[in-house]
Amino acid sequence: MTLLIKNAKTYINGSFSELDVLIKNDVIHSIGVSLSADNIRVIDAMGKYFLVPGFVDVHTHLREPGFSYKETIKTGSMAGARAGYNLLCTMPNLNPPPDCAENLKAQTDIIERDAVIDVVPFGTITRGRKGVGELVNFAELADNVAGFSDDGTGVQTDGLMEKAMEECAKLGKIISAHCEVNELLRGGYIHDGEYCKAHNHKGICSESEWAQIERDCRLAEKTGCRYHVCHISTKESVEIIRQAKKRGVKVTCETGPHYLTMCDEDLQEDGRFKMNPPLRAREDMEALIEGVLDGTVDVIATDHAPHSAEEKSKGLEKSAMGVVGLETAFGVLNTKLVKTGIIPLEKLIYMMSVRPREIFGFDGGEIKEGAPANLALLDIDKKWTVEPDKFVSMGRATPFEGWELYGENLLTILRGEIVYEAI
Length: 423
Hints:
Blueprint: E1 2-12, E2 15-24, E3 27-32, E4 41-44, E5 50-53, E6 55-60, H1 73-83, E7 85-90, H2 101-114, E8 118-121, H3 138-141, H4 158-171, E9 174-177, E10 190-191, H5 194-198, E11 203-204, H6 207-223, E12 226-229, H7 235-246, E13 251-255, H8 257-261, H9 282-294, E14 299-300, H10 315-318, H11 329-338, H12 345-360, E15 375-385, E16 404-414, E17 417-421
Parallel strand pairs: 1-4, 1-5, 6-7, 7-8, 9-12, 10-11, 12-13, 13-14
Antiparallel strand pairs: 1-2, 2-3, 5-15, 15-16, 16-17
């Protein structure tokens, strides 16, 4: 396809300029003002829409193989395309878990057949994704995974994580860790805070997260491993990572839209408010925002985790952990962080499009001549209401249901091909 996008506010080198972008074959052919060409499709952004590198989500659950009643690679990748994502990294909470070449192939075969955007899996750290026992053969999987994670399970012993980090350091691969100390969970399922106490729930203490981050930062410093922390939610986690970065530890981290815009004061007795880690206290939310502002928090990832309606219908105590997030991410963040003046749009695009590519080594994060045409076109002023029944994802449980948001994706381009269009 040859495509000319005219008069777009185009993200180049961290700022926006109104420019034309000509896409030919699978790359950005030229950038400038008043470009023209014959026999091509022209989309006029009218100086209103923003052309950005397509988003990357380094933490999603597409549920195949093993749990296709919750989501499929096809529906999840379609939801990503609708939301402006070029690439999704899938976590290994699967059956079979991707802990060997054969099991990984069961997933990549479906990806090759059904994905409408790029989907790159994580391999597990331990056999069976148990967080204990035997490590996987990292070298066997390394060339076909984004990195290694036991997401949903923390690696429970120092020695096992240290050995995993040593192996990954040799291979130049990243460990993306779900940090959770099992013995500190004590049957909890929401944050151990004021709402928990007032409504007689069992709480998850903050230390169950930050204690393992503290350990892992020490081990990453010792081994030289590149270490990425999944979905941080506590003020202590932010400070531990901030100090580790100052010491030169190769640590990066992500948080989710819900942790930046909600806290346990927003909880309702509804499964759509239940996720792991849980919504924490207001002071934790404020610390995460400060971490975004000073660069301690590198990436915003959704932890898109669809479940069936039945699994999410059992209230806070008994519903499955996890909420969907792909189709609301940009709107929530643009509305609550950009429109309110907390961060500039340029910072949000960096965190959603550029920084994840830098950390995990994916291409397509720049709009420049010769670069892959991996793009999204955003209307940052489009007003809409979150209505889960209209999601492309099979998941419907979102804490943002009913929110009025500003900002919607109009066009997703992957290597020059339009994979989603609403213009």
